[in-house]
C-alpha cells in the first residue's frame, strides 16, 4: 500500500549520535528509570531507530525523560515519535494525509490510526490550500467499487445499531464535553474498522459501514478538538473525509470540510482563508445534497471566519445567505426543535463574527438570542456563547453585567469535560483581573494626587502664617500681610 512505509527514526538517531550512545546504552538507561517488570531488551532501541517502530507506554515517555535529563533540554513525544505513526511498529500512516491515493486500503489505515490514537502530524501538514482543495474535489468524483472479501459475516442490522450508538455519543459530547466521549468513540471506530478489514460484505453494505466509520471518526475529531488536541483532530477529520468519499455521502464530506475550516481559521497565517474558499466551493458544488440547515451551518462557519479575519463585508454576505436558508424552516427562531437549534447555532456563529469585528451591539443581540434558544442538550455550546457574550459586554463597558454572565457560564460548565470551555473561562477571568488591576492602579494614582494637592494646600497656609507672624507694625502690633505680596 502506498501509505505504508518503513522509516528510520532520524531524530532518535541524531540524539543518540549527539550523546555518543549505542542503542544498548539507551536500553540500559530506560531500564534504570522503570520497574524491573517493565524492562526492555537491549535490541529494542535498534527497532525504534532503524525500523521506525514506536515503543508502547510507558517506554515512549521514558525515552523522552532520559534524553531530556541527559541533554538538559526538553525532548517531547511529538519531536521523537510524533512523525513515526502508531504503536504497530513499521506500519505507519504517511503524513500526506490528504494527497495519498484515495483507496479503501488508505482509508482503513487512516481510520485505524485515528482509533489507535497515533502520534499526530504537525498542524501545517493539512492546511496547504492546494492539498485541501484537491481533497474537496475528490468528493465530487464517484467513489471506487467496494466489497469485502473477508471471512467474517457482517449483519446489515449492525448499521442501524451503529447509527444509534453514534447519536447517543454525539448528544453526550455536546452536553458534557469531548472528554467523556473521545475514548468510547475511538473504541467503537476500532470495531467498525475491524469489520471493514475482516468482513464479507457487498457494495451497499460496505458503503454503509464506511459511512458509520466516517461519522465516528468525525465525532472523535470534534471530541479531540474540544480537548484542545488540534493535531489529533486534524488526523481524525482526514480519516473521516476519506470514509465519507467511500460511502458516497456528499453531505458527510462537506461536514468534514466544515470541521477542518474551524481548525484552519484558528491558526496563524492566511491558510484559514484558503480553507474558507474550499468550503464555499464545496457547498456550492454539493447542490441539493445539502439541506437548508446544512448549508446554513457551513455558511455560518464561513461568516465567522470572515469576522475573525476582519472582513466585515464577507461576514455580512455569508450571514445574509445563511439566514435566508433558514427563512421559513420549521421552528424558525422559536428554539426547541431542529429548526430552532439550527437558527441558534447560526446566530451564535455570526454573533462571534461581530464580536471579532468589535461590533458589540449586534454581537450581544445575536449571542443573547442564541443562548436563549439552545436547550439543555447543548450545554457546552451555551456555556461557550455565554463567555463570548460576557466578553462583548466587558469590552462595551458593561462590567457588572459581564461578571454576571460569566458566573452563569461557570455554573453551567461545572464538571464539564471540555478544555475549550475551561480555556474560555480562564481567559475571561484573566481579563476581569487585568481590568481590576488597572482600576486599582488608577484609583491609587488619583488618591496620591489628592494627598499631594492637600499637602501643597496645607503648606501654603503654613507659609502664609509664617509671613503674618514675621511682619509687625508700629508698637509691635501685628500687621496682616497677604502671602507673596513682597512686603
Structure overview:
With 487 residues, the protein is mainly α. Among the domains are: 1-92; 95-279, no CATH class. It contains 20 helices and 3 strands. It has helices spanning 10-19, 23-33, 44-50, 59-71, 77-80, 104-116, 129-138, 157-176, 182-198, 203-226, 230-247, 250-264, 271-286, 292-308, 312-326, 338-357, 360-373, 379-395, 399-412, 419-470; strands at residues 148-149, 152-153, 199-201. The protein has a 3-stranded mixed sheet. The radius of gyration is 31 Å and the shape is globular.
Enumerate the strands of the largest sheet in spatial order, edge to edge or round the barrel. 1-3-2
Taken from the alpha-carbon principal axes, the silhouette is globular
Estimate the strand proportion.
under 5%
The total count of strands amounts to 3
Termini separation: 107 Å
Protein name: Transcriptional regulator
Organism: Kitasatospora purpeofusca
Provide the descriptors you would attach to this structure in a database record.
three-stranded mixed beta sheet, 67% helix, 3 strands, single chain, disordered N terminus, mainly alpha, 20 helices
Walk me through the topology.
Blueprint lengths: L9 H10 L3 H11 L10 H7 L8 H13 L5 H4 L23 H13 L12 H10 L9 E2 L2 E2 L3 H20 L5 H17 E3 L1 H24 L3 H18 L2 H15 L6 H16 L5 H17 L3 H15 L11 H20 L2 H14 L5 H17 L3 H14 L6 H52 L17
Parallel strand pairs: 2-3
Antiparallel strand pairs: 1-3
Helix pairs in contact: 2-3, 2-4, 6-9, 6-11, 7-13, 8-10, 9-10, 10-11, 10-12, 11-12, 12-13, 12-14, 13-14, 14-15, 14-16, 15-16, 16-17, 16-18, 17-18, 18-19, 18-20, 19-20
